[in-house]
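FAQ: What does the model actually see?

It sees only this:
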Amino acid sequence: ERRNQLDQLRQQREDRREQREDRQLERERQAEDRELQRIDRQRAEEDRRLLLEDRQRQIELENQQLQIQQQQLQLQNQNQGGQQ
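And it is asked to produce this:
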């Protein structure tokens, strides 16, 4: 009887220890997940920023090309005006 009680106590203690370890592991896993999510959000923000910068450069180049075309047309118009 006494031995049985000791075995039960030992088993309960072991169960509680395992539960504590499980909870600790779960907390660590959740913290890891949160960190990975934070990193993912950071990368997504960086990707968006780079895309915006690329688009900005593209727009600037298009503007330069339009300005050059406009200058070429103005020169053509001046030349035609001078020839007539």
